[in-house]
Amino acid sequence: MGKWFSITVLLVAMLLGWQQAKQWEPHKGLASPEPVPVIESAPSLNSMDFVSESRVPMAVVLGDEQDDPVVTLLDDGRIDDALTMVRINQASYISAQQVLRRLAEELINLNRVDEAMDLLYESRLYASPAEEEALLELIYELVEQSEKRLAVKPVRPDVLVAFYQNLVVWQPDYVPYYLKLATWQILAGEFAAVELSLSGAVNDARYAQQVADIRRQLDFAREELQSPSLRVPLTREGKHFVVDAQIDNAVMARLLLDTGASVSVLKDAITAQLLVFDVVDSLSVNTANGVVQGRRLRLPQMSMGELRLDNIEVGTLPLDSLKFDGLLGMDVLGQFDFVIDQEQSELLLRPRG
Asked: What is the DSSP letter of 207?
C-alpha cells in the first residue's frame, strides 16, 4: 500500500510541474513577464521609467552609433527626447562621442548653447582620463563654434559674457575662458569686472602678453568714453584686414593692414595714377625675394574712413606679386593709439598725446 501511495504522489507532482512549465514557456529568458518596450514605436521619452537600465538593455544604448536610438531620435527631430535619453544614460555615452557631438551641435543650431555646454561638461564627470582628453577637445571645438554663432551681427556682448561666465564655472582651471570673458566684458562696457576675470590668468606666464593686451584694450575703452576714436572700416579677407584708402580725392587703393611693416607702401601701378606728389628720397626694402628698390613719396592727402592724413609720406615699390594695392604699416599706425575691433570690423584710432 505504501508503495502505491508513493507512486501516486510522484505522478501528481510530475503532472503539476509539467503544467507550471507550460504556463511559463512564453516568457522564457525574460527578466519579468512584461514585454520590453520597443523604442522606435514609443510616442514619447518623457517617462524616466521607460529608459531606465532595468527596462532598456545596455546593448541597445551602446550599439553601433549609426543605429543608436539617440541618433534615430535626432533624425526624427526629437531633440528633447534625445537629450533626455542621453542624460539618463550619460555614463554610457562617454564612449559614443560622435553621438554627443551630434546632439550638442543640434542644440547649438537651435541657439540652446548653454544646454549643449552643460551636457558636455556633465558628461566629463563620468569620463576616464583618456575619454576626458578627447571630450575636452570636442568641447573646445564646439565652444569656438558657439562663439561664432553668438557673435553674429548685431553683436550682443552681454550674451557672450554670460556664455563665458558659464564656462568659467564649469572649468575654472582653463585660462583661455577668463581671457575671452574679459574681452567680451570690455565690449559690454563691464569695465569693473575685467580685472576680476583677469585674476584667473595673471599667474600663468604663458598668457602674460594676452593679459597685457587686454588691459591695453580696457584702457582704450575707458578713454573712448571720454574722447571717441576715429573709425576706419575694415574688410576681412581670410586672416587679414584690408583698408580702403582714397588718395588725393582721386585714386582708390586697397591696403593690407600690416602691423609688422615699418613702412606704408603703394604699388608703382597705383602711384602711376597720381597727378600730384613729391619725391622725397630713394627707398630700399628687404623682402622675401631680396632687396627691392623704390622711392619715398609725399602725398597731399589720404583718407580712410573718418581718418584724414595730410602731407603723408609713403613708399612706392614694384610689388607685382602683392594681391593688394599696398600696405598700411606702423609709420602711419604708430602715430595713434589704436585697436582692431574684430567683431565690428573696424580700426579705432586716437592721436597720441
From this structure: G
Q: Is the pLDDT of residue 230 over 50?
A: yes
pLDDT digits (tens, 9 = 90+) for 72-102: 999 999 999 999 999 999 988 988 889 999 9
In sequence order, the 6+-apart residues with CB closer than 8 A to the CB of 143 are: 117, 167
Query: What secondary structure letter does DSSP report for 335?
Result: T
Residues 324 and 253: their CA atoms lie apart, in Å, by: 8
For residues 16, 21, 23, 25, the Cα torsion angle rounded to the nearest 10 degrees is: -170
- Contact between 104 and 120 under an 8 Å Cβ cutoff? The reply is yes
HSE-CB for 275 with a 13 A CA cutoff = 4
- Distance from C-alpha of 279 to C-alpha of 299, rounded to nearest angstrom: 9
Say whether the peptide bond before residue 176 is cis (omega within 30 degrees of 0): no
Q: What's the DSSP call for residue 155? A: P
Query: What pTM, to 2 d.p., does this model score?
Result: 0.60
Cell output for 133:
582628453
* Block residue for cell numbers 566629463: 124
Kindly report, residue by residue over 135-182, the tens digit of the pLDDT: 999 999 999 999 999 988 788 999 999 999 999 999 999 999 999 999
